[in-house]
Amino acid sequence: MLLSMHLLLLCGLTLVSCQFPCQCLTKTALDSKTCCPVGADNSPCNSNSGRGSCLTYTPGTTPYNDNTMDRRLRWPSGLWNQVCRCNFPYWGPACDWCHPRRTGPTCSQERTVVRRECRQQNCTERARYLADVVLSKYTLSTWCCKLEKGDYTNTSSFVYSRATVHDCYVAMHNQASRSSPRMAGQSRTDLAHESPCFLTFHRMFLLYYQAEMQSLTCNPNWAICCWNWTMDTNTCGVCNDTMAGKTMPDGSYSPESPFSYWKVACSGSTSSSGCQETGPYCSRANISRRGDSTCAYPTPKDMADALNRPVYDREPFTASALNGFRSSVEGYVSPDGNRAGNFMHVAVHSCIGGNMDWTTIAFNDPIFTHHHCNVDCAFAAWMKIHNKNSTDFPANNISGCHPWDAIFPFVIITAHPEMMVPTENWGYTCGYINDTINNYYKFYPKP
Ligand SMILES: [Cu+2]
To answer: What's the 173 CA to ligand 1 centre distance in angstroms?
Structure first.
């Protein structure tokens, strides 16, 4: 408790989010399996002010062959079984944020933020957005700690450190996609990709990032800008110095982009290690891309074809599961759903290349959010076109991705299907969703 109080004093009252709350990684917290951070009212989960309670959480039991050694599974029970449960309209690790669809000092105002195509921002808005993202790279998160070393089979191996806001999201994505010891017959342990969880994980991930940016910038209307790459044919339309940065022939960023100064976070990570660093900040590599900037981007017809898969996902629910919307938009399957390869979301990661081409460090490139914003917009369009809801999230046998599994690494317990709802329920919309839907109807007339 003393350490938590001390941390609170250090952090002040504005808590923002990241990989794991530092207060939950102390030996005491891990030994007692309790992750109930002390909030602004000096009580765990801000319970004194009625915002939340520290409760025992028991995840759904699974009939499948999960690796019980990997403490990311049956989340969060491998690390903590006492966690905050926030009362609406409160949200966040200590229930001190507003739910994403509320704002104001007492979280009483309903609101919806609009995620626009980046190119719809005017000059002032672009400059502001760029400055905000740069601020996130150089501002130490007030409560996030990232796991630098540690094996998810043994919590006493954990080594954690504070990190900046942006770098915590690199770490979060890194930890969700790392491998870990497997049981016989288990083919994968990535908790964020190559499964039905791909779209639900990334929706929660971007929502958290957006909430944190709103807090960091004191701007409750801050919204991620989206890169609709179907507008581009063979060059990246947002890769200029007023937006995501221009790429030089050697793969570096244009010296006129602030991103040319950025260093890679989780620079020493491999697919099975934690977010390790190669050395002190200044000695790390600069973030980078693929030098040759020309690439065949997914076309409006590709997007329409992917949107035309009426079923969310199908057996075996892996990267190459054929004929489902998730695998087509993720892109290990063609947009028409019938063959494996590199298309859509995956193809765009490769088009940008460099850090973006490695799942465990992809978030280092600020274009990650612009890209995934568009993927999330496609998810929203697909739900509207086919009239889908959370009951369409399939029962499946993928570890960490059962319908009752809480989304790792968030300590706000949220099951994957809870993300499969209209975006308005989570306080945002995609500003160009009607363009995406109308484009779909150009290729596939309304029934
Ligand atoms: Cu990802």
So the answer is: 6
